[in-house]
């Protein structure tokens, strides 16, 4: 299952992935006076957990007789119940003879137990009762699920059996090897993974220098190593109650949860196994300093200074990593990031750290996306960063930064919002492996004191001998190929001369100033109405406001700001202009976003299928001040150098589109097919060539002048706040226009359409959608309830039974008033043509299966969707989503969820069966499919009978 260990930051991922939508400013929230204090909650065994004063849940820590540590979380408002169990074993413990074994075992554990032998049993059970489950392997192995509370006990019974008597039958070994292989295949051209592999090579004999995912080659019978035997041995050797940590979350009272924990988990065997974490020491005299040249699959241009650091997780309460990352990544005036940007050398700089990346070692790295000019100055930029580190050593270890970071973390902790139980359980069960029990919730926020010594200890490791300088671009002199990953590399020693040159001062540098946006007031003023009401309707501007229904104790709010100009993206050229505008808005103002983020506010572009929509979230106190800045920078003219720099970045990221995970590309192409205002890659690239900076400035001015401003606010605002925000943004413009949702495909009965594209990757992908035109809420309700059953059948057949691919999904796929179903599969096994036939056959055969569905099973599916639809939102953001979706589609009664709930309640089994026949097997249905033909199989492709191909999407869009 998903291996979550290796992800790029969202912004970098976006920049290298070719996606024109950006997530930025994720991360910390903050401010000054703390109204509440962290609370320690007593647990019956005497263990206290430090939790937020805003956290109403009850916690209890217990240790079962078999030494299994358990944290129980009782949350009367939880509608689903969850559990997560982590095991202190992971990829660093793989035997050399079977690399990927920890991950493989994670897969095999789901394949039946003595009392529940059906390999699909757990998943079927989950699907029937509104559940979901996942697992991932990194330095740990973590298993988790959530389910409707009515079936929590049985779920715990099944789940706990994995750790008592898994069958691990030889007959499933081959199937799951293929699943693991497909998972690897999906990711093999992902640069983040390949670079990780190169970095590990530098660690020589350290166990991190292994292949962690596994594939058919690494997981196989060898002369002295039989896979199945090794699997059993690995389980016996590493799975023991004393190395496991369990978290249970439900609405039950604590005493009842304690009984559940005892009943189901106290008979997991305790083998008293020592922690298997690696202790191998790295000799840095031999290790560094190195330069790695890496040729990526994308067109990214990066300079990365990666320092290998000792695992300092035990310093979590004094936060040396966070302290230094704060200084290193700052874009306040005079800092390297600010100056390098001003010189046109840098697009993005961020600092990333993981002290347990390699188990007993980790890394802290400065990642810089460079411009063409920056690429010519890599030695100088490296020198500037090394000099900045010296400045920090001399003057930066200052208590004032500690105060600022602590304020920010305190505010974040004191007003902590809930996340869903599923993720929370997983997060806590991992944290239990790393932090003292008291701190498993608070560890990321806890900043007990200013500890000069721990910061200096870390600074002493940010030195050349622990440094790897990464030069990443298409132009690198790199010939070596990697085993198991695409991407070439070369490793060189850094010369004495080069390191000497770092001593020469190049530019004067300054340390950052303090933050201007820390909130000062946490006064609460949520509006009484919970459904948005129009509070402003003037020429050129409209605004709606609602208070939160569930989170009135939060001094936060969510704002959508929309500049509505429905013809802003009619042509490919306009789409590029629009994309450039957004990109410049983000990249040119990183210092502002960073400062806002540290003060607990986030800004990001949203909903790219519309015109310009920005989302502003977080503490409301300083939001009006931030909005004034946004107003200024949106209309600030772009300079010629800024234009050239960002245009280059945009073109490179567009050209890198085909290196994204293939199934994600298919989904993007499907959106491009269905929506106007979106264009294909080659068309966008051609349009990009023709644009000038003057055109961009004219475009921005005109688009702003012709826009109707719309504001939707939910949370801690009063009418005066909303009016103030709207007034700040409206400026001089007074264009009034009525709302127009951008045109999309209107499927017609009998249409059978395909978009076929050749793709440079090895795998092939099919993304098929089936629509019942104008089926509206009744149809959408049927699709929703059906999706629970259909997903399971599709997944079981094509992935579990036939092992055709790792990414295999079926889901509801509504399109405006049309109800629909979607089926997606990426396969290293079948050609595109075979995929098409296989999925089509499945759709035919599934009908018979659906006819046999019992009333009882139908009711379960229906109930679990109803529970999900009526669930209380976990936080403000989730609450806001219900309304913002309606608002963007101009459904101003804000009642689409209520209508869907009514339709799901009224649905019968016969309705649902009828819906499937109509949508998939009748002349009333319409089909659209995206086919990506990979390179591994033959290229000839014949469409299914009755299908025709769309060649040009722009022409197709004119039919909308
Ligand atoms: Zn996996």
UniProtKB/TrEMBL annotation:
<keyword id="KW-0732">Signal</keyword>
<dbReference type="Pfam" id="PF00675">
    <property type="entry name" value="Peptidase_M16"/>
</dbReference>
<dbReference type="InterPro" id="IPR054734">
    <property type="entry name" value="PqqF-like_C_4"/>
</dbReference>
<dbReference type="Pfam" id="PF05193">
    <property type="entry name" value="Peptidase_M16_C"/>
</dbReference>
<dbReference type="Pfam" id="PF22456">
    <property type="entry name" value="PqqF-like_C_4"/>
</dbReference>
<protein>
    <recommendedName>
        <fullName>Protease 3</fullName>
        <ecNumber>3.4.24.55</ecNumber>
    </recommendedName>
</protein>
<feature type="domain" description="Peptidase M16 N-terminal">
    <location>
        <begin position="70"/>
        <end position="203"/>
    </location>
</feature>
<feature type="domain" description="Peptidase M16 C-terminal">
    <location>
        <begin position="229"/>
        <end position="409"/>
    </location>
</feature>
<comment type="function">
    <text>Endopeptidase that degrades small peptides of less than 7 kDa, such as glucagon and insulin.</text>
</comment>
<feature type="signal peptide">
    <location>
        <begin position="1"/>
        <end position="18"/>
    </location>
</feature>
<dbReference type="InterPro" id="IPR001431">
    <property type="entry name" value="Pept_M16_Zn_BS"/>
</dbReference>
<dbReference type="InterPro" id="IPR011765">
    <property type="entry name" value="Pept_M16_N"/>
</dbReference>
<keyword id="KW-0479">Metal-binding</keyword>
<feature type="domain" description="Peptidase M16 middle/third">
    <location>
        <begin position="413"/>
        <end position="687"/>
    </location>
</feature>
<dbReference type="InterPro" id="IPR050626">
    <property type="entry name" value="Peptidase_M16"/>
</dbReference>
<comment type="similarity">
    <text>Belongs to the peptidase M16 family.</text>
</comment>
<dbReference type="InterPro" id="IPR007863">
    <property type="entry name" value="Peptidase_M16_C"/>
</dbReference>
<dbReference type="Pfam" id="PF16187">
    <property type="entry name" value="Peptidase_M16_M"/>
</dbReference>
<feature type="domain" description="Coenzyme PQQ synthesis protein F-like C-terminal lobe">
    <location>
        <begin position="786"/>
        <end position="882"/>
    </location>
</feature>
<dbReference type="InterPro" id="IPR032632">
    <property type="entry name" value="Peptidase_M16_M"/>
</dbReference>
């Amino acid at each position: 299952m998903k291996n979550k260990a290796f992800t790029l930051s969202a912004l970098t991922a976006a920049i290298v992935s070719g996606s024109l939508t950006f997530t930025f400013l994720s991360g910390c929230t903050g401010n000054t006076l703390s109204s509440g204090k962290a609370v320690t909650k007593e647990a019956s065994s005497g263990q206290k957990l430090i939790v937020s004063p805003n956290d109403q849940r009850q916690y209890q820590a217990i240790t079962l007789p078999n030494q299994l540590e358990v944290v129980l979380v009782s949350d009367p408002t939880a509608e689903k119940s969850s559990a997560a169990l982590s095991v202190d074993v992971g990829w660093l413990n793989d035997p050399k003879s079977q690399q990927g074994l920890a991950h493989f075992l994670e897969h095999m554990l789901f394949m039946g137990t003595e009392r529940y032998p059906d390999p699909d049993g757990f998943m079927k059970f989950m699907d029937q009762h509104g559940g979901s489950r996942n697992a991932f392997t990194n330095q740990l192995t973590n298993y988790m699920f959530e389910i409707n509370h009515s079936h929590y006990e049985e779920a715990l019974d099944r789940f706990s059996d994995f750790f008592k008597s898994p069958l691990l039958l030889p007959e499933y070994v081959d199937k799951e090897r293929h699943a693991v292989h497909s998972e690897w295949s999906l990711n093999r051209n992902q640069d983040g993974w390949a670079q990780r592999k190169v970095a590990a090579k530098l660690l020589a004999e350290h166990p991190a220098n292994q292949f962690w995912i596994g594939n058919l080659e690494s997981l196989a019978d060898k002369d002295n190593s039989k896979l199945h035997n090794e699997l059993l041995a690995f389980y016996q050797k590493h799975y023991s109650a004393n190395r496991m940590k369990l978290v249970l979350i439900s609405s039950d009272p604590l005493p009842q949860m304690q009984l559940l924990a005892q009943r189901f988990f106290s008979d997991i065997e305790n083998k008293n196994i020592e922690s298997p974490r690696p202790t191998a020491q790295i000799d840095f005299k031999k290790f560094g300093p190195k330069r790695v040249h890496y040729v990526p699959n994308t067109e990214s241009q990066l300079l990365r200074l990666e320092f290998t650091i000792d695992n300092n997780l035990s310093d979590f309460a004094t936060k040396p990593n966070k302290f230094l990352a704060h200084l290193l990544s700052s874009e306040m005036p005079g800092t390297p990031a600010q100056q390098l940007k001003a010189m046109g050398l840098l697009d993005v700089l961020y600092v990333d750290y993981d002290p347990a990346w390699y188990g007993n070692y980790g890394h802290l790295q400065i990642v810089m996306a460079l411009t063409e000019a920056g690429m010519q100055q890599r030695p100088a930029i490296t020198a500037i960063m090394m000099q900045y580190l010296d400045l920090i050593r001399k003057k930066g270890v200052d208590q004032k930064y500690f105060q600022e970071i602590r304020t920010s973390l305190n505010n974040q902790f004191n007003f902590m919002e809930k996340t869903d139980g599923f993720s929370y359980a997983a997060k806590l069960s991992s944290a239990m492996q790393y932090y003292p029990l008291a701190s498993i919730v608070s560890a990321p926020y806890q900043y007990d004191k200013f500890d000069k010594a721990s910061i200096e200890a870390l600074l002493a490791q940010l030195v050349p001998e622990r440094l790897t300088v990464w030069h990443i671009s298409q132009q690198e002199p790199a010939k070596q190929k990697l085993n198991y990953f695409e991407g070439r590399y070369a490793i060189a020693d850094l010369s004495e001369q080069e390191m000497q040159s770092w001593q020469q001062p190049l530019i004067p540098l300054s340390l950052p100033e303090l933050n201007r946006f820390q909130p000062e007031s946490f006064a609460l003023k949520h509006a009484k109405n919970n459904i948005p009401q129009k509070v402003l309707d003037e020429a050129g501007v409209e605004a709606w406001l609602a208070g939160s229904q569930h989170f009135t104790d939060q001094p936060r709010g969510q704002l959508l700001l929309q500049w509505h100009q429905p013809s802003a993206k009619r042509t490919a050229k306009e789409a590029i202009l629009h994309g450039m505008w957004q990109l410049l808005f983000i990249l040119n103002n990183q210092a502002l976003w960073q400062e806002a983020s540290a003060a607990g506010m986030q800004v990001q572009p949203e909903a790219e299928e519309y015109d310009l929509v920005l989302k502003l979230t977080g503490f409301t106190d300083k939001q009006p001040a931030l909005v004034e800045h946004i107003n200024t920078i949106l209309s600030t003219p772009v300079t010629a150098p800024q234009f050239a720099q960002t245009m280059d970045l945009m073109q490179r990221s567009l050209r890198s589109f085909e290196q994204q995970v293939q199934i994600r590309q298919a989904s993007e192409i499907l959106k491009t097919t269905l929506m106007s205002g979106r264009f294909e890659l080659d068309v966008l690239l051609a349009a990009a060539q023709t644009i000038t900076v003057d055109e961009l400035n004219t475009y921005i001015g005109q688009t702003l002048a012709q826009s109707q401003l719309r504001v939707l606010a939910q949370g801690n605002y009063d009418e005066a706040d909303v009016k103030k925000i709207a007034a700040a943004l409206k400026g001089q413009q007074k264009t009034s226009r009525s709302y127009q949702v951008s045109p999309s495909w209107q499927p017609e009965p009998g249409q059978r359409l395909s978009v076929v594209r050749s793709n440079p990757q090895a795998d092939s992908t099919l993304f098929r959608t089936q629509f019942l035109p104008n089926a509206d809420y009744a149809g959408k309700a049927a699709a929703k309830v059906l999706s629970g059953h259909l997903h399971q059948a599709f997944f079981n057949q094509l992935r579990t039974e036939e092992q055709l691919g790792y990414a295999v999904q079926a889901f509801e796929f509504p399109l405006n008033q049309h109800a629909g179903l979607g089926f997606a599969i990426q396969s290293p096994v079948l050609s595109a043509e075979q995929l098409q036939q296989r999925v089509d056959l499945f759709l035919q055969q599934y009908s018979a299966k659906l006819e046999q569905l019992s009333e009882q099973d139908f009711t379960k599916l229906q109930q679990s969707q109803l529970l999900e639809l009526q669930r209380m939102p976990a936080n403000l953001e989730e609450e806001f989503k219900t309304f913002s979706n309606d608002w963007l589609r101009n459904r101003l009664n804000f009642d689409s969820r209520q209508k869907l709930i009514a339709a799901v309640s009224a649905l019968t089994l016969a309705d649902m069966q009828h819906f499937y026949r109509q949508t998939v097997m009748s002349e009333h249905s319409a089909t659209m499919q995206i086919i990506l033909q990979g390179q591994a199989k033959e290229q000839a492709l014949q469409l299914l009978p009755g299908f025709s191909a769309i060649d040009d999407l722009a022409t197709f869009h004119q039919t909308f």
